[in-house]
Description:
By secondary structure, the chain is mainly alpha-helical. It has a domain of 43 residues. 74% of the residues lie in helices and 4% in strands.
Amino acid sequence: MNQKQWARIKQQGFNEGVQATQEMMAKSIYAAAILAARREFGFGRERCMRLLKSIDEIVAETFTSEEIIDAAFSECGIKFNFREGIDSIRAF
């Protein structure tokens, strides 16, 4: 195996790892959203499904993560600064 082939294999492995991580993060965030809705507001199965469908629609309708973050601030007064950890979520 030459150096070029090895580099291609390494890059492919890296790309697959990134994709798997992104998918797991998305699944975890969706699961956390419905768990929080259940625990904080008593959502049952139907309301949790509506919540997940609504999240999907918002994600599909926006072009960038920044647009979603900006909408959360403008519509809800919630601002995120992900460089500061979970304590960075503040209401304004």
